[in-house]
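Q: What residues go here?
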């Protein structure tokens, strides 16, 4: 009897790629993997990274064209769906695209879906632009649970460590870490992928069914603490300089500004839990994340 097949859509996303890596490393005796891509270019880059792995790939699946999605999910029992984001399309389409992906998975008899979503759904009024990307998908999963017996898990992504890389690069050059004055348990997107792998490879899906897991790192960090960590890693005396709202409003996209404005005014708004560590047994620190990405600051 063959192992259950898992669709990873999209496989070139940070969390999708990390999920595949974790499955191949720890759970290849539990599930098989299908990597799903929109373009051949993305698929080729993926194949180079996983050239020694026995991973099926499917190309030409565009969430904006529902008729192309069946091949992403046909024959799969489980699926990881990463909420899509194409800057060229704009945020307003993300919820619709995720809906298309979920509906195709259900139509093709996928039994269990892990969805990568966002912590912003906790504040639909205050962070409306980003939370609206994700809340409809959570509602849709609950609907299909009632109507079709679908099992699901939602990984609510926190604030990504990757998003601070430009700030770190600038700080290394100027010795000043400029960032809004927030308190945040930043998460490495690789940890989100690892959590997804744990859920998808579990022999007891009921253990994770209907669960909302908050994805965050092991520590709540201020801007001052970020500067201290960077000082240690790069052996430089980097100072922290808070960026006031009226300044970062000028260069942040409106949706991102809405989030950071809320975080400045509500310092403990980002959920801080042990979900990542409890699922995977580990949680990446910010210092280790920076050390893992040193090549990006050369």
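A:
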């Amino acid at each position: 009897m063959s192992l259950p097949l898992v669709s990873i859509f999209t496989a070139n996303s940070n969390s999708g790629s990390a999920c595949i890596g974790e499955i191949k490393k720890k759970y290849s005796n539990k599930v098989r993997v299908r990597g799903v891509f929109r373009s051949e270019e993305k698929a080729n880059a993926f194949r180079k990274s996983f050239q020694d792995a026995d991973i099926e790939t499917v190309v030409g699946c565009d969430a904006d064209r529902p008729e192309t999605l069946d091949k992403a999910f046909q024959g799969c029992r489980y699926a990881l769906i990463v909420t899509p984001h194409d800057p060229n399309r704009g945020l307003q389409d993300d919820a619709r695209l995720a809906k298309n992906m979920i509906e195709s998975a259900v139509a093709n008899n996928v039994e269990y879906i892990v969805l990568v979503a966002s912590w912003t759904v906790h504040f639909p009024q205050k962070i409306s632009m980003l939370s609206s990307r994700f809340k409809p998908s959570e509602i849709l999963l609950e609907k299909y649970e009632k109507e079709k017996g679908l099992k699901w898990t939602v990984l609510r992504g926190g604030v990504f460590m990757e998003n601070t890389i430009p700030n770190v690069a600038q700080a290394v050059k100027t010795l000043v870490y400029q960032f809004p004055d927030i308190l945040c348990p930043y998460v490495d997107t690789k940890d989100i992928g690892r959590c997804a792998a744990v859920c998808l490879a579990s022999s007891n899906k009921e253990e994770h069914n209907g669960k909302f897991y908050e994805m965050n790192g092991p520590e709540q960090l201020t801007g001052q603490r970020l500067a201290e960590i960077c000082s240690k890693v790069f052996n430089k005396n980097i100072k922290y300089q808070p960026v006031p709202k009226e300044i970062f409003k000028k260069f942040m996209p409106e949706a991102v500004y809405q989030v950071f404005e809320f975080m400045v005014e509500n310092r403990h708004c980002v959920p801080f839990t042990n979900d990542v560590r409890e699922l995977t047994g580990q949680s990446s620190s910010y210092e280790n994340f920076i050390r893992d990405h040193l090549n990006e600051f050369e």
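A: Context that may help when evaluating the design: The chain is about 40% helix and 15% strand. The chain has a mean pLDDT of 93.
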